Amino acid sequence: MNQSPKDPLRTSDSNIDYKSLYELNTDGILTINVHGQIYNGNKTIEQLSGYKIDELKCKNFLDYVIDEDKEEASDCFQMAINDASKECRFTFIHKTGEPIPCIVKFIPMEVTDIDKGLFLVIKDVRLFDQLSSKYRESQLNFKIIAENVQDVIILMDDQKNYLYVSPSSKTMFGFDPKKINQEKEPFFNIHPDDISNLANNFRDAMQTGKTFNVTLKALHEEKGWVWTHIMGTPVFDENNLFRHMVLVARDITLHKEHEERLTYLAFHDALTGLPNRRYFENQLKQSIDKLNIEGQPFTLVVFDIDDFKLINDTYGHDVGDQVIKEFATRIKTIIGQDGIVARLGGDEFVAILYKISTKVDVEKIINRIQQETVNEIVMEKQSVTITSSIGATICTKKDMDNSNFFNSADVALYNVKEKGKNKFHINYS
């Protein structure tokens, strides 16, 4: 009997952010593990597939792909597993047996840990295919449809001259379609960094007859650059000669913001906004690499709030959270551009001081932190005074790993705790 896999969306501290990505997205979304097994999905996927989420759980997503596309779908999935994700097109099977052509993309749930699973974002392109088919049958029918859809539809010839621009261009990009039709510059509102990619895809589609998909920045007349998805389909006449390219553009700014939010959450602490342990360990590795290659020393600092448990027990966790946030703000302000501060969890913080490697300079920074820490923290109904114990290690030895330096800083902090509180100790490693 299949056992339902653990769904990280239900256990993540950031499930509120993930929930918005699920419920507000007009595309279908499945969450799958690294074996392709489904463990969740949004409401749109139920509408798209005809299946309830409970019917999909524990099944492999490939079970719902038509046989002709299974190899393409499997290859696309493996590319995502190997950190080479791309958009792919293949056909899913509706519960009724109806084929559903889709554009899909596999997005890692956590960019640093593919084992957490992936989002499978599924865009239904039946309407687009119907539009292309309609146009082949009748230019008039195409125009009627194009003028009544929200996506921007553009026709271009082999020289990239504009043949037709749908009225929705005014709503989506702020440009009057008549003005666009008069443009002599192809792709005039595409970001300079993206023009060559779009042009290359355009050329390849003319030669191969295959649909292409690109994500790029397009200019909105008032808003500036907006993230845009463009699907291009070449149309050929009865003699198989290229007739024109059908480009369908969609503003995906909201989707991009969700992706960026997911990336941010993967590397930052939800309470303080500081980098988290994962981000910090990456930065520490870079500092160690610079030490080994360039001989650039640095200082690792660990610190916590004295008697923080007593604050929580006395005033409650809401006050405790406010203390943590204010403490984080003060440390970050003091260290500024001289280094990076991260929260490891609870009241434990850690910092790297770049290029600060003399005891005198380290003491100056630590003294400022401790002087600022004792300033009263004033809240709406409560004020609290805290102190901090700090351990540091000046890192100068090459060929050491993260744990060596962390252990040295932890020993320094332990020495402080042995002697009392609101003090600091500096080691060398």
UniProtKB/TrEMBL annotation:
Q: Which PROSITE patterns match?
A: GGDEF, PAC, PAS
Per the UniProt record, the source organism is Lysinibacillus antri
What region holds the PAC domain?
212-264
Q: Which Gene3D superfamilies has this protein been placed in?
A: 3.30.70.270, PAS domain
Indicate the segments forming the PAS domain, all copies.
14-84, 138-209
Question: Which one Pfam family would you cite for this protein?
Answer: GGDEF
Q: What is the lineage of its organism?
A: Bacteria, Bacillati, Bacillota, Bacilli, Bacillales
Q: Which InterPro entries match?
A: Biofilm_reg_signaling, GGDEF_dom, Nucleotide_cyclase, PAC, PAS, PAS-assoc_C, PAS-like_dom_sf, PAS_fold_3
Query: Mind telling me which SUPFAM superfamilies this protein's record contains?
Result: Nucleotide cyclase, PYP-like sensor domain (PAS domain)
UniProt-recorded name of the protein: Diguanylate cyclase
Q: Which PANTHER family match?
A: BIOFILM ARCHITECTURE MAINTENANCE PROTEIN MBAA, DIGUANYLATE CYCLASE DGCP
Q: Where is the GGDEF domain?
A: 296-429
Residue ranges that the Swiss-Prot or TrEMBL entry lists as coiled coil: none
